[in-house]
């Protein structure tokens, strides 16, 4: 069996997600007014249209499509599609707001060991899937070793230290 290498690239965090858009302006409006991201300065040396937004510790980089009509048009909301997920304080408040904004969404629920996680899935203007959840209810459990904290409180360094210690013990 191949030996597991803990953080071989020495990663520290997720920096941003890039999304190709039919209309950067429509996408800015969505990410700013629906999800609460804030537009930030983008390097002026880029020779293509786009925008950068920031919120919740990550960036969203919007890139104007060179041929917007060729972008696939997604209408079906499929929770198994590629998506980015955000945790929220109140699923009820999120669902109420989505209804007020007339944004179509799909509800889902995950159950594990008596713990329930509610999820809402919807699309941005270009069909990219967004999930809002109360995933913090579900603990992150490494496949080997002790139980970690909940999703929003996982400390990568603690997990890495546990994995390294387990590797050392296994090698002895």
UniProtKB/TrEMBL annotation:
| Superkingdom, natural source | Eukaryota
- Where's the VOC domain? 13-135
InterPro entries linked: Glyas_Bleomycin-R_OHBP_Dase, Glyas_Fos-R_dOase_dom, VOC_core
Q: Under which name does UniProt file this protein?
A: VOC domain-containing protein
In which organism is this protein found? Xanthoceras sorbifolium
């Amino acid at each position: 069996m191949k030996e597991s290498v803990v953080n071989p690239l020495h990663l520290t965090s997720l920096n941003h997600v890039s999304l190709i858009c039919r209309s950067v302006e429509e996408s800015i409006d969505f990410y700013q007014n629906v999800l609460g991201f804030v537009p930030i300065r983008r390097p002026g040396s880029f020779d293509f249209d786009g925008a950068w937004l920031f919120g919740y510790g990550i960036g969203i980089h919007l890139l104007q499509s060179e041929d917007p009509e060729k972008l696939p048009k997604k209408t079906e909301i499929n929770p198994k599609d590629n998506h980015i997920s955000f945790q929220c304080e109140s699923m009820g408040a999120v669902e109420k707001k989505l209804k007020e904004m007339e944004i179509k969404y799909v509800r889902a629920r995950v159950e594990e060991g008596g713990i329930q996680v509610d999820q809402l899935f919807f699309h941005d203007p270009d069909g990219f899937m967004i999930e809002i959840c109360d995933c913090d209810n579900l603990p992150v459990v490494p496949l080997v070793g002790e139980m970690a904290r909940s999703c929003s409180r996982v400390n990568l360094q603690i997990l890495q230290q546990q994995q390294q210690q387990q590797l050392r013990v296994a090698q002895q």
